[in-house]
Design a protein that fits this description.
Blueprint lengths: L2 E4 L4 H12 L5 E4 L5 H12 L6 E4 L2 E4 L1 H9 L2
Parallel strand pairs: 1-2
Antiparallel strand pairs: 1-3, 3-4
Helix pairs in contact: 1-3
Length: 76
C-alpha cells in the first residue's frame, strides 16, 4: 500500500506526488486536515510528532518526506 499524507498548498507535497506519478507509483493521498478512519490515526501521529509534510509510505514502509523520496530514487 502506497500513501502520501499532505497539507493543502504544500509545494513539497506537490513535488513528491509528481515524482511518484513519473515513477508509475499508484498511491492514495490523505490530507492531514481532513483524514478519516485509520488514516486519521496516522495523521494524528504525524502531527503529534511534529513531522513535516509530505509523509510518504511505499509498500507500507515509511520513506519520509520529499527529500527522502528524491534521495531514494537517486540510489536506483
Amino acid at each position: 500500500m502506497n500513501e502520501i499524507y499532505v497539507k493543502r498548498g504544500c509545494p513539497y507535497c506537490t513535488r513528491a506526488m509528481r515524482i511518484m506519478d513519473r515513477m508509475g507509483i499508484n498511491y492514495s493521498v490523505y490530507n492531514l486536515e481532513t483524514a478519516r478512519g485509520a488514516q486519521r490515526d496516522v495523521a494524528r501521529q504525524i502531527v503529534s510528532r511534529g513531522m513535516t509534510v509530505p509523509q510518504i509510505f511505499i509498500d507500507g514502509h515509511h520513506i519520509g518526506g520529499c527529500d527522502d523520496l528524491e534521495a531514494m530514487i537517486k540510489g536506483y
